[in-house]
Amino acid sequence: MIHAWATMTATLTTRLLAAVALPAVAVMLILALWVSPPDVVQGDAVRMLYIHVPAIWVAYGSFALTWVASALLLWRGGRRTDGGRHYDRLAGAAAEVGVLFTALTLFSGALWGRVTWGTYWQWDARLTTTVMLLITYIGYLALRRLPASGSIQHRRAAIMALISFVNVPIVHYSVDWWRTLHQEASLSVGRRPEITGEMYWTLLYSAVTVTVVAAWLIIHRYRLIRLDALADEAHLRALLTQRRSEEVGR
Amino acid sequence: MSNAGTLWLGYGVTIVSVLGYVLWMWRRARALGVSLGISDNEHFPSSDSQQTPSDGQPSM
What is d(CA B43, CA B50) in angstroms, rounded to the nearest whole number? Predict the structure, then answer.
């Protein structure tokens, strides 16, 4: 048991997010699996779009949050009373959620590819860069766990996060830069959408819903990482106190 | 695999994975002696009684 203040990781924000997310997910499933029409070429397989695309958008967003938090840690961490630990925990929480959604993107994409391309996997530019993105951020999470003094541990993770983010635009624009089996981006800034009507609105709705779910996960994970660290510090303080009392008793 | 089977697998694994991550966090929170505060049946005081530790960090 840790401090009395830490009774739960929920806040008013997370409870509001959960209250929005649960019915929103139910509506998303109805829209994606029943209301949205089948594609003239792909048929019902196109419904995989509504989890595959939002999942990678949320992963991009999570990794962008990791980048911003890491940049703030390196820029302003030294001037904060907590040494930038707040930014470090936010970066870690966002990266973890990003890894989850990148893995789900690859999984749903493999299933979709099996139906539309006849294969689960091809070493084409989009798929290869996406799997590299996943591996890079798993590496980032592993690096966070390597022991070191506090500031060194935070700063080296932040530098790794800044470098890792370079792959995000490469993944997104890989379908434009190289000839790939993967179709072009469904929605892209400055370009006419590849889809319209009910499919378009269902995709946007799904993206907003998955973003709300991801925000809920990131906030809880952030607070859990924080409590974990505080529990470690409390445990260390207790051990030191015990050691001192043993030495006084001799 | 049929389209229906593919969709069931894709949506099913996605939902189970996210719920699995929530469950993992819930277990981690329990190990720390706190709760995620998802349900009022978790036998922990309400979030209104929370106090912020003075470690200089803003609360999320």
Answer: 15
Phi, psi of A39 (to 5 degrees): -80, 150
B44 Cβ contact list (under 8 Å, min separation 6):
A7, A8, B34, B35, B37
The verdict on a CB contact (< 8 Å) between B35 and A9 is yes
A62: which residues sit within 8 A by CB, 6+ positions away? A94, A95, A97, A98, A101, A214, A218
Contact indicator for B11, B4 with CB cutoff of 8 Å: no
> Of chain A residues 168-207, which have a CB less than 8 A from chain B?
none
A66-110 pLDDT tens trace: 999 999 999 988 788 887 889 999 999 999 999 999 999 999 999
Q: What's the pLDDT tens digit per position in B14-55? A: 999 999 999 999 998 888 887 776 554 444 343 333 444 444
Burial class (CB in 10 A: 0-12, 13-18, 19+), A114: middle
Give pTM, 2 decimals.
0.86
Predicted ipTM > 0.95: no
Q: Which residues of A touch B17 (CB under 8 A)?
A: 100, 103-104
Overall residue count recorded for chain B in this entry: 60
